Amino acid sequence: MFDISLFNLSLFITDVSYGMSFILTVLFGIWVYLKSSRKTAHIMFLLLCLAIGIYQVAHVFGITATNSEASRSIFNMSLSMIFIVCFTIHWIASALEREKDHLLLISSTYTIGMLLAMFYLLFPDAFLYASIPKLYFPNYYVAGYGYFLIVLFFAFGFGASMRMLAKAYKRTDANHRNRIAYYMTSILLCYPLGAIGFFLAYGFEIDPIFSIPFNFFIIPLAYGVLRYDILDVRQAARKAFGYTVFVLGTALFILGANIGNNFLHVIYPELPGWILPLSSSLLIVLFAGFIWERMKDIEVLKYEFITVVTHKFRTPLTRIKWASEIIKRQAHETDEEKLALSEIENANEHLVELTDILVNLRRENEAGYLYDFVDSDLCAAVEKAVKSMKARIDAKEISLTVDCPSKAVFASIDQRRMAFALQIVMENSITYTPKGGKVKVRISASDSNAHIRVIDSGIGIAKEDLNHVFSKFWRSKEARTTDTEGMGIGLFMAREIIERHDGQILVESGGVGKGATFLIKLPLTMGA
C-alpha cells in the first residue's frame, strides 16, 4: 500500500508552481527588455521581474528548509517585496509616458523603500522572527514587530498604482483606455492574491496556496507589453487567459506525472524509475512540437498577407509614377502643370515609402532588415525634405526658413528613412500651423549630438497631452478638429526611425495656441 503521509501534495504543488513561475517571470522580463533595451518602461519591467524572481526563490527554499534559523535567513531575501512595489510604480509611470508628472511619487517610493530595507537589515527581528512549522510547511514566516510596515508599503504600492492608472484612464482616449483597463485588471486581481501570504505570517491559518496565481500575473502583463500598443481588453484577455491555461495545464501535467511516478515507485519498487518521466517528457516534446508548428503556420500566414498587400500596392504606384513621367515629358511646362505634377510625384513617393515600411515589418527578424547608414550633412537632408513639400508650403502661405550653421553638421543616417522621418515632423508642423504662419528649422551641434529643431507657430499642445504625442494612433482634441483626416501614426513612425538611428525625438509646447518645438537628437559624426 502507498503511504500518503510520505508525500506532502500541497507543499509539492507550491514548490512546483513557484519554480515554474520563477522561470517564466525571468524569461518574460528578459524578453521584454530585449524588445527595446532603451525604453525605461522595458528596463523597469525587467527589474520588476527580477525582484519577483528573488522573492519566489526565497519563498521556495525558505518553506522547505528544515532548520529554523536557516529558513529565516533565506526568507530575509524576500525583502525584494519592497522593490517589487518600487519597480511597479516606476514601470507604470514610464509605461504611461508620465514619468515627469509622477517624479515626486517615484522618488518618494524609492526613498521610503530604501529606508525600510535599511531598517530591516539593521534590526532583523523587526522583519521576521525565527521560522516555525505552520500548516503543511516545514517552516514558514513569523512576522516581526515591524513586519506591519512592509504590509502597509505593499498596500501603498497597490493603491498608488491603481490611482495612477485610474487617473490616466479618465484623461486619455478610448484606444488607450483599453490598454490601461487591461493593466488595471491584472494588478487589481493579482496584488490582493499576493497579500494572502501575510495572514499566515501573523498566525491566521489561511492557506497561502490560494496566492499562487499571483506568481503568474507577469504572463498576461508581459503579453500586453510585448503585443499591444492599443489593447482590446476582451481579445487580449482571451489570448492571455489561453496562454495562462496552457502554462497551468502543462504544470498540472508535469505534477501529475511526478505524482504518478511516486505512486508507481512505492507500489512497484522493481519498476525502473525512469519509465514514466521519459514517457511524459516525450508527450510534452510532441505537444510542444505541435504548438510550434501551429505558431509557425500563423507567422507564415501573417507574412504572406503583408507580402501580398505590399505587392498589390506597388503595382499601381509604379503605374502612377510612369504615367506622371509621361505627362511630364508631354506637358507644356506651365506653372500650374508643374505644381500638379510635383504634387503627384511627392504623393506617390510618400506612398512608396509607406509601403516600404510595411515590407520592413515582414523583414523585421531577417538579416536583410538593415539600415544603410551613411555620414550625411543634416542641413542638406533637411533642405531636400523641405523642397519635396514646397507645393504644400506655398498653398498654406507658410513662411518656412532653414537655419544652418556655418560648419556642416554630420550624422550617420539612412538617407531614405531619415528623409521620411523629417518629412513627417515638418509636415506635422505645416498641417497644424494656420495659413500665413511660420515654421523654422534650425540645425545645430553639441559636444556629442546633432540637433534638428522644428519650431512652429501652430495650434500648440496641451500640457497633459505632451506625453502622448508619439503614441500610435493618438491625436489630441485640437488636432482632430484641425485635421479630420489624420490617423495619428506619422509621429509614431518618425520616432521609430529616429530611435533606430540611436537618436531621440522630444516635443515642447507652451500650451494650446502657443506653437510647438520638436527636437531631434542624433549622434554627431565627423563627416565623410
What does this structure look like?
With 528 residues, the protein is α+β, with helices and mostly antiparallel strands. The chain folds into three domains: 7-259, Rhopdopsin 7-helix transmembrane proteins, CATH 1.20.1070; 274-370, Helix Hairpins, CATH 1.10.287; 373-525, 2-Layer Sandwich (Heat Shock Protein 90). It is built from 18 helices and nine strands. Helix 1 runs antiparallel to helix 2. It is elongated, with a radius of gyration of 29 Å. The N and C termini lie far apart (83 Å).
What is the CATH C level class of the largest domain, in words? Answer: Mainly Alpha
The CATH topology of the largest domain corresponds to Rhopdopsin 7-helix transmembrane proteins
Q: List how many beta strands DSSP finds.
A: 9
Shape estimate? elongated
What's the SSE pattern?
A: HHHHHHEEHHHHHHHEHHEEHEEHHEE
Largest sheet, in brief, is: 7 strands, mixed
**Ends apart, CA distance between termini:** 83 Å
Task: Summarize this structure as a short list of keywords or feature phrases.
single chain, alpha+beta, Rhopdopsin 7-helix transmembrane proteins, Helix Hairpins, Heat Shock Protein 90, 7-stranded mixed β-sheet, 18 helices, disordered N terminus
SSE arrangement:
Blueprint: H1 9-35, H2 40-64, H3 68-75, H4 80-95, H5 103-122, H6 124-127, E1 132-134, E2 137-140, H7 147-171, H8 174-194, H9 196-201, H10 218-227, H11 233-267, H12 275-330, H13 335-362, E3 373-377, H14 378-388, H15 390-395, E4 399-403, E5 410-414, H16 415-431, E6 438-445, E7 449-456, H17 477-482, H18 490-500, E8 504-508, E9 516-525
Parallel strand pairs: 4-6
Antiparallel strand pairs: 1-2, 3-5, 5-9, 6-7, 7-9, 8-9
Helix pairs in contact: 1-2, 1-10, 2-3, 2-4, 4-5, 4-7, 5-7, 7-8, 10-11, 11-12, 12-13, 14-16, 16-18
